């Protein structure tokens, strides 16, 4: 399938640089399988769902995974994106040509790492020196890894340490937030519970590969980056039971959806899962586990716009995005939301 089928023009002014405040005041575009779109607010979500429906959240926690350092006189930027071992992380490097296998990078604040060879994903293995846990080193020397389309327009600041973290975050390991869940507040959760809508959590550690553009001309030639995820057996059992009772499973974010689909068999049953996934969902994919998706608005020609096009149909999503752009919706990680119900 041609990648340019998923291209569209987005005015720069539609890109959100800060989240809505309070979080649940963001706009929400309801996209049903057919009929008119509806311009609503995230606070309207309880009225759009039914008792017995289940919202599935990703409880990964974003770590301050961006580092700035020096290799000799060369300035090096590093974005960690996958843990390889106790003191080893796979990283994308800026100015990588200035770093050779075995050379030391000094990230300041007493944080140093030895660079390893290039890998098949275009990254470099960094082996951190010393005895302190890497998470402690990152808290001291790292910055929150804002997406390039935000970081290129303003500096990361202290506010991003809370803004770019969901209320569900508890499992360290992500280098990008599961941004659909940024819209939730305790007040919204209480309103959902009052209506009989339940929630479950899973863990998918989102990697920096989520920001990488699809460089191939055809989707068949694109290689997804691996991300590690886990669904507990008890969680899978509750999700299957809810669906058997007539409830809908609504993934909050593409990360939750991708993990649910990775864990589902041909029979649609979700099973316990603890592994890496490279699932790449494009139009023609048969969904097994989810009945709907709450998600932000995604980049042109991105794997995530391909995913929502697979769920709703490419023409339907192009029409929804045209409506969103024309109506002034805010796009990307800090932007507004949509509820897709095929």
TrEMBL record:
It is found in: Cytoplasm. Keywords: Cytoplasm, Queuosine biosynthesis, S-adenosyl-L-methionine, Transferase. GO terms for biological process: tRNA queuosine(34) biosynthetic process. InterPro entries: QueA, QueA_dom1, QueA_dom2, QueA_sf. The keyword S-adenosyl-L-methionine applies. GO terms for molecular function: S-adenosylmethionine:tRNA ribosyltransferase-isomerase activity. Its main location: cytoplasm. Its EC number is 2.4.99.17. GO terms for cellular component: cytoplasm. It holds the Pfam family Queuosine_synth. Gene3D superfamilies: QueA-like. Pathway: tRNA modification; tRNA-queuosine biosynthesis. It catalyses: 7-aminomethyl-7-carbaguanosine(34) in tRNA + S-adenosyl-L-methionine = epoxyqueuosine(34) in tRNA + adenine + L-methionine + 2 H(+). Transfers and isomerizes the ribose moiety from AdoMet to the 7-aminomethyl group of 7-deazaguanine (preQ1-tRNA) to give epoxyqueuosine (oQ-tRNA). Monomer. Belongs to the QueA family. This is S-adenosylmethionine:tRNA ribosyltransferase-isomerase. It comes from Sphingobium indicum BiD32.
């Amino acid at each position: 399938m041609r990648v340019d089928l998923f291209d569209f023009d987005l005015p720069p002014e539609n890109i959100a640089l800060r989240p809505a405040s309070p979080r649940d005041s963001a706009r929400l575009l309801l996209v049903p399988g057919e009929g008119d779109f509806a311009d609503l607010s995230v606070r309207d979500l309880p009225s759009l769902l039914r008792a017995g429906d289940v919202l599935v959240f990703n409880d990964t926690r974003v770590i301050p995974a961006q580092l700035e350092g020096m290799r000799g006189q060369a300035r090096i930027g590093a974005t960690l994106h996958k843990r390889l071992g106790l003191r080893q992380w796979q990283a994308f490097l800026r100015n990588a040509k200035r770093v050779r296998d075995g050379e030391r990078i000094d990230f300041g604040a007493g944080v140093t790492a030895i660079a390893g060879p290039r890998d098949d994903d275009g990254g470099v293995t960094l082996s951190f020196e010393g005895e302190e846990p890497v998470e402690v080193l990152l808290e001291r020397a790292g910055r929150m890894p804002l997406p390039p389309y935000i970081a290129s327009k303003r500096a990361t600041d202290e506010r991003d340490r809370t803004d770019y973290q969901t209320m569900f975050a508890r499992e360290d390991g992500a280098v990008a937030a599961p941004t659909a869940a940024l819209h939730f507040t305790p007040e919204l959760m209480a309103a959902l519970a009052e209506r009989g809508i339940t929630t479950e959590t899973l863990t998918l550690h989102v990697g920096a590969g989520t920001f990488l553009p699809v460089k191939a001309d055809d989707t068949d030639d694109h290689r997804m980056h691996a991300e590690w995820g886990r669904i507990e057996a008890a969680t899978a059992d509750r999700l299957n039971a809810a669906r058997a009772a007539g409830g809908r499973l609504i993934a909050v974010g593409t990360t939750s959806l991708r993990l649910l689909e990775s864990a589902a068999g041909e029979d649609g049953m979700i099973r316990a899962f603890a592994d890496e996934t490279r699932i790449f969902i494009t139009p023609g994919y048969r969904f097994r586990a989810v009945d709907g998706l709450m998600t932000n608005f995604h980049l042109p020609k991105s794997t995530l716009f391909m995913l929502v096009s697979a769920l709703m149909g490419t023409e339907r999503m192009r029409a929804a995005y045209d409506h969103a752009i024309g109506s002034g919706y805010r796009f990307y990680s800090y932007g507004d939301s949509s509820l897709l119900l095929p």
